[in-house]
Write a structure and sequence with these properties.
63% of the residues lie in helices and 9% in strands. By secondary structure, it is of the alpha+beta class. The longest helix has 35 residues.
């Protein structure tokens, strides 16, 4: 198939490239608006208890939307609750909020809810907050919050107004992500081009991977816009699209061009060299893309659309990068011919030094071959030392904790972050920690008893329901009839416990242990959402791991005909990723080295480790396929003795070592561009993938893989008789293996 496709492409390269240019221009125009349809949330399981409770609050009580907070600050000697100017400004703000159809009731303020003064007015008295909730969910509420921010932020009669709240957090995360994306591209593309010049030596050859990478990004942006018209897609999918589109295109193009140069140096003419390159390197690229795509597709098994979005984006960018590499690369090579090495910066340097033209050396004469031979001679001690080193790096992984993202994912300069920081510091209570309980089918007497029992739980300041307001089991005030509609009732619990802390988790457990009335009791709030999200991830995780493990094993078996090599790949990849996760806990959860510029909350955002696992696992298999493809090619052309197995390993690593190292360096540059992100968990994503790629390409591919294959010898290629016969019948043939 690849040979036929390649012959068609090189038969009319100009037509192919003109057609591709037209498609890219149209795709670029269409995909330019992709970000407008993407959402900033998606961290919750839509079928979880907290989300079911929020749906009832929204549908039956017109409550439960994302929170927006308006903070009013006056001079130090002003008491916001009694000062007439402060009250007048506060009333103006409330009326402006009520004018918006998307603002839900009630709107809380110290002037209308004096019983909640501890949560609505600072300890010093000169600061107060007005709290409302916004309809529209994670899709529309952030935009509504930004509209309120534009309308209210400023100064009135000496009172400073600042807007915050979860809705604005999502909105500012969305805006910040778009800025970070441009910065990441501005960092990654120029640096990658410089490194490619060093790798290829020439400006023209270095430009080919960049062209294919940009084409991949444009194509995937258009695809994401189409997908977002049918389902919810997270805005963070754009970051993965940009990073992986560029990284995979560079990887694939680098492998193909390197093989093309090798074929030309071996005496083939240009068309035959291109066909041979696509039959070998192109086949490896195609198989690698399938492996990466299957790893990322596992994310669709999680219920939250934040993770599903990365499956959509990941599969899309892999497909587009593959098509671009298989079509654009041979067309460009055919059209450019010898000019692919034009503007070779090495030539003037070599002329000045009196050296001849650079030559392609056989693998056995390279430094890589000698280095691998050293590893093979000391396989057991090297394997032992590297495994111990990776286990030590991964030790912090054992204390990993998951949590729900809050305002602290934003930089301290973001207004939504600064408002919440000031509330945590200056206010006695934080209403973002409020626990809400939805009760169905409870009598008035049962509701009163249940509300009183909840107020007895340690750390609960007060409990309010339609039956009354309770403190330490005693009723202190009458309740609001609006808190009950039909057989549904709302109970609101005020607490000082941080929802995602250990105290908050223990308190939530104690609340849930209180004897429940009625036919249904549902908890919601940040603490419950955190529990639900972690439970949903753990619930889907076995299926995700099984899908990745089984799919990878089957694909590598079809690729190699061995059952040993797929098992080796799975074990080494997990070992490498454990070390990566250990580093994430060390930096971002425990806050060492200043959390690399982020705020340590004592946990990792729950969706990020599984996302990193799927992405990093797929990318590590990318290099595994690159390496095994060349090793197997040499093995099949040998007499298949133990010595031939060792030689195939050394030859494969020597042949691909430079390419894998260069590809890993380039991919790490692309992911390192994401480290500039001001959204903390995207910075963690960039750091984690950068470490994973570099660790995999060095410690794993260059040390552990050859050590393992040396120790296994001919057993590397073993499979039971029935499976070997199955592979002979349906396995992927090695076209050009004996060329």
């Amino acid at each position: 198939m690849l040979v036929r496709l390649t012959r068609i492409v090189i038969g009319a390269p100009k037509v192919v490239l003109v057609g591709a240019l037209i498609v890219l221009v149209l795709g670029g125009i269409f995909g330019a608006g992709a970000a407008q349809g993407l959402l900033a949330g998606g961290y919750s399981d839509p079928h979880s208890e907290s989300e079911r409770a929020n749906t009832i609050l929204d549908d039956e009580f017109a409550r439960g939307g994302l929170q927006v907070v308006v903070k009013l600050d006056a001079a130090p000697n002003v008491n916001m609750a009694t000062d007439p100017t402060a009250r007048r400004v506060g009333e103006q703000v409330i009326q402006q909020l009520k004018a918006h159809s998307f603002v839900q009731r009630p709107i809380l303020s110290v002037w209308h809810n004096p019983a909640a003064a501890a949560a609505l007015q600072s300890r010093e008295g000169n600061s107060a907050i007005i709290i409302a909730t916004l309809a529209g969910g994670e899709g529309k509420a952030p935009a509504h919050a930004e509209e309120i921010d534009d309308q209210l932020t400023g100064e009135r009669e000496g009172i400073t107004l600042t807007v915050g709240g979860q809705a604005l957090v999502f909105g500012q995360v969305n805006t910040q992500t778009s800025r970070d994306l441009l910065i990441a591209e501005a960092i990654a593309i120029p640096i990658s081009f410089v490194v490619l010049i060093v790798v290829f030596g020439g400006l023209v050859a270095a430009g080919l991977p960049i062209i294919v990478g940009i084409a991949s990004i444009i194509g995937t942006f258009a695809l994401l816009r189409i997908i977002s018209s049918f389902t919810d897609v997270s805005v963070f999918a754009l970051n993965l699209t940009t990073a992986m589109g560029l990284a995979l295109a560079i990887d694939y193009t680098l492998l193909i061009i390197s093989r093309y140069r090798e074929e030309v140096a071996g005496g083939r003419n240009r068309p035959d060299a291109i066909v041979a390159s696509m039959a070998t390197a192109g086949r490896t690229v195609m198989f690698s893309a399938v492996t990466v795509g299957l790893s990322l597709s596992a994310l669709v098994l999680f219920p939250m659309y934040f993770l599903k979005s990365f499956a959509y984006a990941g599969i899309g960018v892999v497909v587009v990068a593959l098509v671009a590499a298989l079509i654009l690369t041979p067309a460009l090579l055919m059209l450019l011919g010898d000019r692919v090495d034009a503007l070779d910066l090495r030539r003037p340097i070599r002329r000045r030094l009196g050296l001849g033209a650079p030559t392609v050396r056989v693998a056995e004469e390279t430094w890589w071959y000698r280095a691998v031979q050293f590893v093979l001679r000391h396989a057991a001690p090297i394997a032992l030392v590297v495994v111990i080193f990776l286990l030590v790096l991964g030790a912090p992984f054992l204390s990993m904790k998951f949590g729900f993202p809050d305002d602290r994912v934003l930089p301290t300069s973001a207004t939504a972050r600064s408002v919440q920081d000031e509330i945590r510091r200056d206010y006695a209570e934080d209403l973002s920690s409020t626990v809400t309980v939805v009760v169905r089918g409870a009598s008035a007497q049962d509701l009163s008893r249940y509300s009183a029992d909840l107020s007895k739980v340690d750390g609960i300041n007060s409990v309010s329901s339609s039956s009354g307001s309770y403190i330490r089991g005693e009723q202190k005030a009458p309740g609001s009839p609006a808190d009950t509609r039909g057989d549904l009732s709302i109970i609101t619990l005020s607490t000082n416990a941080t929802p995602t802390s250990e105290d908050g988790e223990n308190q939530l457990t104690a609340l849930r242990d209180v004897t429940r009335p009625g036919s249904e009791v549902l908890f919601t709030g940040l603490g419950q959402r955190n529990v639900d999200t972690v439970d949903s991830i753990y619930g889907a995780l076995p299926w995700v791991l099984a899908w990745i493990g089984i799919a990878t094993f089957i694909l590598l078996f079809l690729f190699t005909g061995s059952v040993v090599l797929p098992l080796k790949a799975l074990v080494l990849n997990v070992l490498s990723l454990t070390a990566t996760f250990g580093a994430m806990v060390f930096f971002f959860q425990e806050g060492h080295l200043g959390g690399l510029g982020t705020t340590s909350t004592g946990y990792l955002v729950s969706t990020m480790p599984v996302l990193m696992f799927c992405v990093a696992f797929g990318l590590s298999m990318d290099y595994e396929v690159f390496l095994l493809g060349r090793i197997r090619e040499k093995w099949l052309s040998s007499d298949r003795t133990r010595e031939d197995s060792d030689h195939a390993v050394a030859f494969g690593l020597a042949s691909t070592g430079r390419v894998i190292t260069a590809a890993a360096l380039l991919m790490s540059i692309v992911f390192a561009g994401m480290i500039a992100s001001q959204v903390s968990f995207m910075r963690m994503f960039g750091v984690g993938l950068t470490l994973a790629v570099l660790m995999d390409a060095t410690l794993i591919r260059m040390l552990l893989v050859p050590s393992f294959m040396k120790l296994a010898g001919r057993a590397n290629w073993w499979a039971p008789g029935p499976l070997r016969r199955l592979h002979d019948r349906i396995g992927l043939s090695e076209e050009g293996a004996k060329t």
